[in-house]
Amino acid sequence: MSGDKTLATGLKRGLLRRCPNCGNGNLFQGYLKVRSECDACGHDNGQYPADDAPPYFTILLVGHLIIGPMLFFPFIWKWPVGQVLGLTMPTVIILTLCLLPLVKGAVVGAQWAIAKQG
User: Fold this and answer.
1) C-beta of residue 31 within 8 angstroms of C-beta of residue 96
2) Residues 102, 54 contacting (CB under 8 angstroms)
3) N or C: where does the chain have the smaller number of CB atoms within 10 Å of the terminal CB?
4) Cβ neighbours, 10 Å, residue 91
5) In the chain, where are the structural domains located?
């Protein structure tokens, strides 16, 4: 059922928002709520508390991939603040909200892999 119990498998299945144990069932019910029990294999996914790690890693990713490089574009320094915020904030918010479930799935998958190895 669970097959390969490596960190890479857990991360991959989590990024796909699938049950880390079987890879078939949905990991989430809704946007970020982890299903307590996998609908395919019955694995208890509620035992892996993600807590503050997903938002932290998401902010870290967005900050390094978007905010940092954006500082090299001249418009950031030359345009009025209102225009810069009007252009950049929607992009940052949308990217953050899109990445958050993926990162949370990866965190749950990593916890599954670590718990299985221990």
Assistant:
1) no
2) no
3) C
4) 12
5) 7-117
CA-to-CA dists, residue 61 to 5, 58, 93, angstroms: 26, 5, 13
Q: pLDDT per position in the chain (118 positions), as tens?
A: 445 789 999 999 999 999 999 999 999 999 999 999 999 999 999 999 998 999 999 999 999 988 889 889 999 999 999 999 998 999 999 999 999 999 999 999 999 999 866 5
pLDDT of amino acid 14: 97
Q: How far apart are CA 22 and CA 2, in angstroms?
A: 5
Q: Note whether 88 and 70 are within 8 A (CB).
A: yes
Cβ atoms within 10 A of the Cβ of 47, count? Answer: 12
CB 41 within 8 A of CB 27: no
Task: With beta carbons less than 8 A apart as the criterion, state whether 87 and 3 touch.
Answer: no
The amino acid sitting at 101 is P
